Amino acid sequence: MAEPLSYWLRDAQQPQHPPLRGAAAADVVVIGAGFTGLWTALALTDTDPSLDVAVLEAETVAFGASGRNGGFCEASLTHGLANGIRHFPDELERLETEGIDNLGGLVAFVAEHAIDCDLEETGTLSLADQPHQADEFRAWVDEAAGYGEALEFLDRAAVQAEIHSPIWQAGLYRAPGRDVLLDPAALCRGLARVARERGVRIYEGSRVERLDRVAAGVVASVAGGASIRADQVVVATSAYSGWLGRLRSTFVPVYDYALVSEPLTVDQRTAIGWARRQGLSDSNNQFHYFRLTADDRILWGGYDAIHYYGSRVDPALDQHPATFAKLEAQFHRAFPQLESMRFPYRWGGAIDTTTRFTVTFGQTLGGRVTYALGYTGLGVGASRWAGGVVRDFILRPDEDRLRLRIVASPPIPFPPEPIRSIAVNVVRHELDRADRDHGRRSILLRTLDALGIGFDS
User: Fold this and answer.
1) What is the CATH number of domain 1-119+177-251+354-414?
2) What is the pLDDT of residue 456?
C-alpha cells in the first residue's frame, strides 16, 4: 500500500473535478490549486464577480505544500519579525499591520463559509535548548516590543512547567493574535468549495506544460493535448515551478520531512503537559516544529532541509527513511516519557525558498503572466495576502502596495548548477556547525547575513 501524501491527506482523495479536455477559454487561468492559486481565484472574483476564472491543477487540490505542511498559520508576511527587520525595515510597520489584518481576514473567512479545518487560536512557544539561545530570547523580548510584538520570556522552570521535557532551557511565548493552527488540506479543500460556488471552474489532472503568447492573450497547453486561452494567466505552482524556465533562478525547492504519531493516551497527554496546545518550535538553525493535532497526535517535523541536485522535485523523494529515523531519535530525546510512541504517518514535500525567505512576485510575457512563489515554509497565511497582490497586478494596477519593495523588488537569484547545489550544501554545513558551536556564525554566514542572502525551510 502506498504511503499517504501526508497525515492531512491520509484519506485517499479521488479527483473531485474533471480534467481539462479539448480547447477552452477563460478571462483568467490560474495554474495550481493550492493556497496561492485558490486565494487568487477568490480575490479576483471578490473584486469582479463577472470574471470567468479557471484553475488548472496537475494532480488534485492541495496535492503540494498546501496539503503537506505542519498547519502553522502566521500573520507575518516577512518570514518572521527578525527577517522583516533585516530586509524591509522601512516597510515593516505597514507589512506587520497588513499581516495581522490578513490573518484576521482568513479566520473570518473560515467562519463565514463554515470551513471545518480544526482552526485553533493557541499562540506559539519558541524553545531554547542551549544557554546562548536563552540569552538571545531575553534580549529579543525588548527588541520585538519596539515593533509592537509582545512576547513573554519563560525561564527554565516556567518553560518546563508548560512543556514537560528535560531539554528546554527557556521559552518565548506569543499570545494568540498572530498565529493559528489548522488542518491545511481541509482549509484548501474549503477554499476550492467556495471558489466553485462562485462559478470558478477547477480542473484536476491537468498539468500545464507550456505557455505561449498569442494576440491579446496567452494559451496554456496541457499534457494530453488540451489547451485553454486566457487574457491573463497566474502561475501559482510554488516549489513545482521549474517547468517555467523564467522562474528557475528565483527559488530552490527544499524537501522538508515530518512525522505524525498515533493518538496520545490520557496518561501520555498528562505526562507531556502542553495544556495550552501552543504551536512549538526550537531555535536552532536546523530547527524542529511540532504541534498537537485535533485528535491529540503529535506532528513533529523539520531539521533536515534537503536540496536535491538539479532542483529535482519527484514523488520518489517524498519518503526519506534516514531523515525519519533521525526525527524519531530527536523526538524521543525531547520526550523520553514517550519512548514507546510510534509514528504511523511520515512524509516529505518540497518547499519553495528564496534567498530572502519571503514570497516574490513578477510578470512575464508582456505582463500577461503573473506569478507568486517563495514562501519558504510560511505560506499558509501569507498566500492569502499574496493572492490579493496578484489580483491587484491584474485588476488594480494603480494599487500602491504594488510599489512596496517586497512586491516590486526581486530577491537575489540562485546560481545555476552545479554551483547551486554546492552553495546550498556548504551553507547547510555551516548552519549545522553554528548549532554545534554555541550559535557562533562563521565568516561565510556573517557575509551572507550582510548581503541579505540566506537558506532556510
Assistant:
1) 3.50.50.60
2) 55
